[in-house]
Amino acid sequence: MRDNAVNDTSIWSRGMMAVTCAQFLSAFGDNALLFATLAVLKQQFYPDWSQPVLQMVFVGAYILFAPFVGQVADSFSKGRVMMFANSLKLIGAATICFGLNPFVGYTLVGIGAASYSPAKYGILGELTTGDRLVKANGLMESSTIAAILLGSMAGGVLADWHLLAALGVCVLMYAGAIVANIFIPKLAPARPGQSWRFTPMTRSFFNACRMLWHNGETRFSLVGTSLFWGAGVTLRFLLVLWVPVALGITDNATPTYLNAMVAVGIVVGAGAAAKLVTLKTVARCMPAGILIGVGVLFFSIQHSLLPSYMILVLIGIMGGFFVVPLNALLQERGKHSVGAGNAIAVQNLGENTAMLLMLGLYSLAVKTGASIVGIGIGFGAVFALAIGGLWIWQIRQK
């Protein structure tokens, strides 16, 4: 029976359904936990500048473990690696639930997420092949976007109702993901017997970094995606402080609804990019990147809910149209140089480093007492200029 499960490469196989279910539950828990933990910080009267620090400890785990998590995923059965990673997330969420330091608990969740990422993408190529692999990736992304939308809203709404219930739901989501992992067939390790010595592991990873950053096309993609995701996570925290100042709404749910509008827009923008942009016409995405910054600038000066929703949907559309072609460019060029897995690991390092830097600057600005509306205006203007500069640089490279 187990052999049949392993040999079934359909995207509707038991293994694929288990992976998709586990991904949905795990991503739901991640997004709900962020807003539930932010509510914990508010309840315990942590200063406003500490909110982005919460995400900084999360992305810090990605950066610290970047050279190693890819090898962990390839050295063991990926379904079991996913189970271990979700167990770490569960322990981290339970730590917060039981009233221990939220930063310690969220760091554990970050370590789990860093371990989970290469395993969840890597296992798709082991469960299915050929054209079905593209569909499998689409299924994975669909489940992730659904989890972002529902998890973000659930975290805010439940935190308004009962904070312990919100945290308890996160623990249950991670427990459900672990149960789903049990139904993933136990596949053979992709690359067993690799050296676990620190120096060869880090040397191999940083050689891949050097190759991708020295190539003009992949460097262009890495800079663009890093700027995008750094801006995206900063916008998420900007909304939390912006809503009570600009709209006079102090609940936990409204920022999650606004974040959900960005996710909806990204889906639309990604679909448009798939139809209108090819690897040969990647530069078509650059105006959309500039419009992201312009959109954030105009959003920051709003004082009513409906225009805010509309602008955030537009920001999301521009974001999806901007980032999808750059991701495709990196995966295609990376596959022929350092391997797709290494390219994703290098991209993760760049993106999370950008998140850490942007969140640090945002936290510093809040701590110095700068106006949240002023921060938003400045953030949008700087992002638009940065993408404009990247576009000019890319043209000169050609």
From TrEMBL:
GO CC annotations on file: plasma membrane
A GO MF term: lysophospholipid:sodium symporter activity
Main location: membrane
Keyword Transferase: no
Membrane-protein topology: Multi-pass membrane protein
HAMAP family listed in its UniProt record: MFS_LplT (MF_01585)
Family from the record: Belongs to the major facilitator superfamily. LplT (TC 2.A.1.42) family.
Name of the featured protein: Lysophospholipid transporter LplT
Organism field: Buttiauxella izardii
Gene that this polypeptide is encoded by: lplT
